[in-house]
Give the backbone structure.
Amino acid sequence: MIRNLIQTQTNSNTNNTINILIDFLDPGGRGKHLAKSIMHPWVAILGLLLLLTDGVTSYSQVTGVAGQSIRLPCSYTGEITSACWGRGKCSWLSCGTDIIQTDGYNVIFQKDRRYQLKGYIGERDLSLTIEDADPSDSGLYCCRIEKRGWFNDIKIMQELSIRTGFSGDK
């Protein structure tokens, strides 16, 4: 069993070998061991970039008509937690430009009365309803559900397109 990661170092003089000194919980009293692994630095950098940028992102598309209510779905499983909706892409730490927030039970922030969570929040339904939709409401929306730990929040992206209503025969 590992007790501590003592030191990490890259030594370019030894063919890009990464030396990691690990302190093992060792009942025999032998203590520290040196673990060697060959890894090119670009592999580590590329892996870190993919982790931090969320890799490839796709968006669900929702289309609505101006003047009507639009529903952007968002739900989750697991323990009840806080969440938010924002305009634009989800950032690392927030929903972007917050438009509505919940503590898991109640709405605690609402930028405009047109933005509502009409589902039962306690049952993990965080679907956003936009009342009286306008073409300016078109764009990306982020539903971010906070989870314990680092970099494991659930992020659901929706791309909304509002079209104007059609008038009768032309």
